[in-house]
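Sharing a chain and its predicted structure for anyone who wants a worked example. Both blocks are below, sequence first, tokens second.
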Amino acid sequence: MTGVVNYTPLLDTPGLKDSSRHAQYDPTVFFVYEATLLVVDAIRRAGSDQPAAIHQALKTSTMPSLLGGTYAFNNGV
């Protein structure tokens, strides 16, 4: 999995204010944490550990990010 996210410690979103992870870790670890949550959500929704089922579930993901906004995939997934 790869991704590009704009990050600055000056972000002032409610999710980051509530997240102790923001204060404890660098941004890279934070993004890996959110990416892991995204994949876990897709596996749960797929009801399977088969790559094709997970891929299909990822296509319909709309998980909110603690940075603000929502993770959603384009048609290139």
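Comments welcome. The first strand starts at residue 63 and ends at 64.
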